[in-house]
Design goal:
The chain is α/β, with parallel strands linked by helices and 579 residues long. The protein has helices spanning 30-35, 125-140, 163-168, 181-193, 248-255, 263-285, 288-291, 304-315, 335-346, 351-354, 365-374, 377-380, 398-415, 442-457, 477-481, 494-503, 552-557, 565-574; strands spanning 13-18, 22-27, 41-45, 51-64, 83-96, 105-107, 119-122, 145-151, 158-162, 171-174, 200-204, 217-222, 238-239, 318-320, 325-327, 385-389, 424-428, 463-469, 485-488, 522-527, 534-538.
């Protein structure tokens, strides 16, 4: 049956101005005016039978029709007829009343606008509950829905969003420190993990998602200095990312000093020697088909030690001259490049790149890595939601390393046959660290390039992107502009608020004014996945991330505390915790 059956007496006012997506309503009932609140919902009668327009109040005004009215004695008269009460409403969709069925349908479209003098009604009480339930029912009856929590407007109604559209069309989860951002991400991940063929990767920068457990969740960690000795297999959950996975530009971003006058020679010689080393490897394993078509960027193993030896040989080469030996064409021009390369190879912090071991030199190793990264729960026979801990990766190359993982995922998806392509989602925690708005080094630029491509083309190849950050103002604008879903929690910084405001539809710009006053665990949810722009209180996840703020005052007030400094200093020296 239809949700909205109003009588004329229930009207709060009538329409007196209509724009494309905005309506001004004149309110004559003062009692009704006092009960109205910004961001609450109203219903307007459509010009079409069986349809009602849903609007969001974004401003309540009282406007004087004329100036101050005085009587003959000069006394001010309290004449309320000289004041007009105006409510500005942003139209957000249309509810099609049930006709011959019990299903009311809400659509985020406006096929009509209200007529002048059309009545306006407040959506509250049982009608609000019925409307929210109708929206939830629509989503639940679709493909696997994603539950976030309860609507702030009506805490009896569950808030669902469309899981397909949320990941297909990319998403943004933002909020200041302590706003409940990690809580929200954990809530989403736990539901993804319950799906029998889930495939998602969460880039965990600080190790705060370690408490998340379950059959559908597995934990991986990029190898640190303490993992370089002993067994090195992907089954242990320790990930090595050998140097041969890097593209030519990514290697140069790490090794080449662009200000060096010999930089062009160094880049050219390195290119040539790496190509020769890859060719030699392919010949050794009998991969003639690959040999005919590979490029400098093809992910083919090669012996970096042999490349270093060749570069050193060229750097000190003497050739025959007219009368005696003379310096070769690259004599002394490769010295600094070789020194930088040797320094990187010897840095144990970069062991996951340069000391991955013989196992990672196998031709089949990349397939095994790709299965770990992209494999669903069924394919891996382990959790399809992979939480990758990057906490031991040096911060100066973090953008490059995370960009490398993202590029591998995208490239494998791109080259997978369309009928066999299984979707995978990338959730980028602390995204401002490696998807920056302003990149100052070649390393950050190389990593950013992968995410820009995923944001633009990922949907075609089944790669979804979820950007998670406490500083949206520092996240790349190109990436953010491609995201169609927003879960915005409390933001107190004016620059961050401005970014979200610009990303919201024009009719909902005022919705962003709520950002600084949201409660902890409360979010504004807007986008293709949400039937209705809503303020939602996020439900608590089963396992909380270890991101709770330290209680300074309480800890300082404690009589006894344990001294953790000696263990911390030793861990700092060993570059490893827990031993």
């Amino acid at each position: 049956m239809p949700i909205f059956e109003y009588t004329t007496e229930e009207s709060i006012g009538s329409v007196y101005s209509v724009d494309t997506g905005t309506v001004l309503v004149s309110v004559s009932n003062l009692d009704a005016l006092r009960k109205l609140q910004v961001n609450h919902l109203v219903v307007l009668r459509s010009s079409r039978a069986g349809q009602h327009l849903i609007g969001l109040i974004n401003k309540i005004m009282r406007k004087a029709l004329v100036g101050v009215n005085e009587n003959e004695a000069g006394e001010v008269q309290d004449d309320r007829s000289l004041v007009e009460n105006i409510v500005r409403v942003s139209l957000i969709g249309t509810l099609l009343d049930a006709v011959g069925t019990d299903q009311n349908v809400f659509r985020r479209t406006l096929e009509t606008v209200p007529e002048i003098d059309a009545p306006c009604f407040v959506l509250n009480g049982e009608k609000l509950t019925g409307f929210m339930r109708a929206i939830s029912k629509q989503i639940v009856e679709g493909q696997e829905p994603l539950s976030l929590g309860k609507y702030t407007l009506d805490e009896e109604a569950n808030a669902w969003i469309d899981g397909n559209r949320f990941f297909q069309r990319h998403a943004v989860v933002v909020g200041s420190t302590g706003s409940g951002k990690s809580w929200t991400v954990a809530r989403i991940l736990e539901q993804v993990a319950e799906l029998p063929n889930a495939s998602a990767l969460l880039f965990d920068i600080h190790g705060e998602y370690a408490p998340l457990t379950g059959d559908g969740i597995s934990h991986l960690r990029v190898a640190g200095p303490g993992d370089l000795d002993g067994a090195r297999t992907l089954d242990d959950g320790i990930i090595f990312l050998p140097y041969w996975l890097l593209t030519y530009e990514e290697m140069l971003a790490m090794l080449l000093d662009r200000t060096d006058q010999n930089a062009p020679n160094q880049a050219m010689v390195f290119n040539r020697e790496v190509l020769e080393a890859k060719k030699s490897y392919l010949e050794g394993v009998g991969k003639d088909a690959v040999l005919a078509n590979f490029t400098i960027d093809s992910p083919v193993p090669y012996a970096l030690g042999g490349v270093v030896d060749k570069l050193q040989e060229l750097d000190s080469e003497m050739v025959a001259g007219a009368r005696s030996e003379k310096q070769g064409p690259f004599h002394g021009k490769l010295t600094r490049f070789v020194q930088r390369l040797q320094s990187k190879i010897g840095d144990r912090r970069l062991g996951f790149l340069f000391n991955a071991g013989e196992d990672a030199m196998r031709y089949e190793w990349l397939e095994e890595l790709a299965t770990v990264l992209l494999g669903s729960t069924t394919v891996r026979e382990k959790g399809g939601v992979k939480i990758i801990d990057f906490s031991e990766v040096p911060s100066d190359i973090l953008p490059l390393v995370i960009g490398l993982v993202a590029r591998i995922v995208f490239s494998v998806q791109q080259w997978t046959e369309k009928d066999l392509r299984h979707p995978v989602a990338l959730l980028c925690d602390e995204a401002h660290l490696y998807i920056p708005e302003r990149h100052e080094t070649g390393i950050s630029e190389a990593g950013l390039r992968s995410f820009e491509r995923i944001a633009k083309e990922g949907r075609k190849y089944g790669v979804g992107l979820t950007v998670i950050s406490q500083r949206p103002a520092e996240v790349n604008r190109t990436v953010l502009s491609q995201c169609s879903n927003f879960v915005a929690m409390r933001l107190t910084n004016a620059e961050d608020q401005a970014v979200i405001r610009r990303l919201l539809p024009d009719t909902l710009g005022g919705f962003a004014d709520l950002l600084p006053i949201l409660d902890i665990g409360e979010a504004l949810v807007v986008g293709d996945a949400a039937m209705l722009p809503s303020r939602i209180r996020i439900d608590e996840p089963n396992n909380r991330p270890s991101s709770a703020t330290v209680a300074f005052w309480d800890r300082w007030a404690a009589d006894v505390v344990e001294n953790g400094i000696p263990a911390a200093v030793e861990s700092l020296r060993k570059q490893r915790t827990g031993d």
